[in-house]
# Entry
Amino acid sequence: MNEPLSADVVVIGSGIVGALVAQRLALQGASVLILESGPRVGRDRLVANFRNSPRKSDFMSPYPFSAWSPHPVYQPMDNDYLVQAGPYPYKAEYIRIVGGTTWHWAAQAWRVLPNDLRIHSL
# Structure
């Protein structure tokens, strides 16, 4: 990475949104550079990591830790926006590798709440 790079647009993150934005811009003729903080990891390595992990309930265990780009641990504070009930509350996290959280679907498909339709006025 010693040679200078240039592009019309720089997209930060290669997850689903970054990838879709980069594709759309490239199809419109723009030169696009995607920056990702994590490493490129093959599916075979991730499958082996999962098989060898003693923490099968931790969906982050197969993904390698990178000291230069640690996975943030996101634990939502109670703000009455997202109410999680049941014996296993879901703690959303995201992955810092090439492809981002497209590597797994974390079952986050939240329903629209009334305040979502009032964002501008709120």
